[in-house]
Automatic annotation (TrEMBL):
Residues 3-125 form the VOC domain. CDD domains: VOC_like. This is VOC domain-containing protein. It comes from the Bacteria.
Amino acid sequence: MTILDHLSVGVPSVEDAAEFYDGLMATLGAKNLLQNEALAAYGVDAPIFLIMRPYDGKAQTAGNGTHIGFRAQSRDMVDAFHAYALEKGGVCEGEPGPRAAYPNPEVYTAYVRDPFGNKLEVIFNGFSA
């Protein structure tokens, strides 16, 4: 059982951000399940990851020390996610590879920032493995 219903990141424009996230989420087998001017919701069977304009009308900001970890089913998926993000304007925050800090020695992960400053991780053999 998971304790999470969904996660979200703020973006300045849902339409612009969806152009980035539609392809990025496809690298993990997820798709845009719902979109309107306030949000877009991604998942495989049900929405779990949302991109949203801030409801308070203020500028979107990225959290310091905060990131969202997406589960990949293979090292190839990690590599594809990372490559797609960089190709579409993301910034590398950690090349694909193993990380000693994780308890599973078979972990393979990468970090990027989306074009809006949000930090994302993609991980194979992570905590949920």
